[in-house]
Amino acid sequence: MNLFRGSAYSNLLSVAERAPLSIAKTHSLLVPLLQGWRVPLQEFNADELNRALGRVDPARCTLAYAQIAIDCVVLCRTSEHAELAAQAVRRLAGEGQLQQFLEYPAMLQRLADALGRIGEPGLACSLLADVAESLIAQMAADRISTEQDAEQRLGRNSGVRLTPVHIECARQCVLARSLALHQRVASQVLSVALDGLGSLVGGQRGRAFMEYNYYAGMVFAALGEADAALRAWQRVFALPARHVSAISIAAYKRRALLHVARHGTKPKLPPFFASAHARTIEGHAAAYVALVDVCCPAGVASLAPAVAKVTEMRNVLQNDENAGLARHLLHELPAHYIRRCGSVYASLHVERLAELIGFSTHPLAATRGREAVDVVGALVRYIRDMNDPGVALDESAMGVVVRFMPVRATVSALPNSALLGGGGAGAERQWMEAVQMKVAEATALRGRLEELDRHLALTKEYAVGSRDKTLSNSA
User: How far is the C-alpha of 338 from the C-alpha of 180, rounded, in Å?
Assistant: First the structure.
């Protein structure tokens, strides 16, 4: 007798509730049903969906429960519908078992797609973050690894692999524009190192990896974490590709703006990146390449050309949704121009510095309506806000003087530091701190190389190649 006769989910429930069957046997019956699945309801039926969800144990039959939860998401049209769908997804996140997704990885893609089309980025991001955090915790604890995944490892040894839920969570986070969600996703999802691409991502794994890092960079940039954003956008170019992707072009544009804002230098693509691809990307981002060239002159220069170029590119920046990064670039640019003056001058009157860098052309010193802005005063306030130990203000009755102090950025800069002042004790302290910093960096790099060596020795390709080489030498 069929206990589920009359239910739209009768076939699914009859398999899910076969208690005598093992989980493996249950999955062998479930997967054929799920592969050709069509939503059995024409519209959202809360009673029917509630009954179906109540019949399935998400811990024992995660795939069946996930499919019913996905149907809730697909069919929901009102806030009441969305509430029931959210409850189902949260229960899936709390009680579902990752091992069962390995039987049918497409279910994760199906879940991510459904939540991505829900129409409420904030809700979608929150639910996707619930699922992603649960997946990460289970992967980190179980360190699930198949033979196929061993070939896709990235060497971080965390056990966490990329899934469609990670990618959609990052994308919805960008769309949600919520500081709280940005902070949650950045710390709980995006900051977790990936161990591999894994078999949970279908289709083009390279594209999935690029998308994930592209959106991750946007989340970090929105939080003001420039270094993390630059690292994420750098990873977009980490995998070899036959063709140039629109993702890599968009990442190049954003990375160019943020790199100049952060470091004041021209960004470079990784040295292993194909030169033909690099030329193609630069061709599609020609305006950004020109902007970088203008913003990174050699030696002391005026801000006027850079400000004019950004103004000229206003429409391009808005169309690419990079106007916010361009404003950030303009705000940070004077700091780099001021520091460049320190490579030529030991000190300057602030009026002379404003003249050298053309600060009067910058938006911070531009006229506001009919009110003229005090250019010198604006520059003094800007230098104070820089809070740079290498740039000091000396105010006296003779006026305001900008003094360029020695910095600890590199060991190579230290010999001149001793000549510029601070005494022997100060110079010696700077030497010690810089050397200790370099030793710590070298130790960290050595540990990373040893980790990569161990990972390489365990890969199938290396083992086969080493065996063939040993046999040929012994012959």
Answer: 35
Contact indicator for 185, 129 with CB cutoff of 8 Å: yes
CA–CA gap between residue 17 and residue 62 (Å, rounded):
12
* 3-state helix, strand and coil shares in percent for the chain, rounded to the nearest 5: 65, 5, 30
Residue 402 CA, chain-centre distance (Å), reads: 38
pLDDT tens digits for range 383-424 = 999 988 889 898 887 789 999 986 544 444 444 443 344 444
pLDDT in tens, 115-172: 999 889 999 999 999 999 999 998 888 765 443 444 444 444 667 889 999 999 999 9
| pLDDT given at position 255 | 97
In angstroms, rounded to a whole number, what is the distance separating the alpha carbons of residues 27 and 64? Answer: 9
Q: Is the pLDDT of residue 448 over 50?
A: yes
SS3 at position 400: strand
Return the structure tokens found at 446: 């050595």
| pLDDT of 6 strictly over 70 | no
- The DSSP bridge pattern shows strands 399-404 and 391-396 to be antiparallel
Q: What are the residues whose beta carbons fall under 8 Å from the beta carbon of 348, sequence distance 6 or more?
A: 341, 356, 401, 402
Report which residue type is found at 269. Answer: L
The token duo for 249 is 């072009």
Q: Are 172 and 115 in contact (CB under 8 A)?
A: yes
Q: Which is more confident, 427 or 378?
A: 378
Residue of 326, 340, 331 lying closest to 296 (CA atoms): 340
The per-residue pLDDT for 410 is 45
In 313-422, which ranges are continuous DSSP H helix?
314-319, 323-341, 350-356, 375-386, 414-420
Do 83 and 123 form a contact (C-beta atoms < 8 A)? no
CA dihedral over 305, 311, 313, 317, signed as positive or negative? positive
Instruction: Look at the pTM and tell me if it is higher than 0.90.
Output: no
Q: How many degrees, rounded to 5, is the angle at CA 378 between CA 372 and CA 384?
A: 165
- DSSP for 254-281 reads HHHHHHHHHHSS-----TTS-HHHHHHH
Cβ(132)–Cβ(189) below 8 Å: yes
Q: CB within 8 A of 202, min separation 6: which ones?
A: 105, 106, 109, 164
Q: At CA 275, angle to CA 271 and CA 280, rounded to 5? A: 125
8 A C-beta contact, residue 49 and residue 71: yes
pLDDT tens digit string along 331-348? Answer: 999 999 999 998 899 999
Q: How does residue 33 score in pLDDT terms, banded at 50, 70 and 90?
A: confident
* Cβ pair 331, 356 in contact under 8 A: no
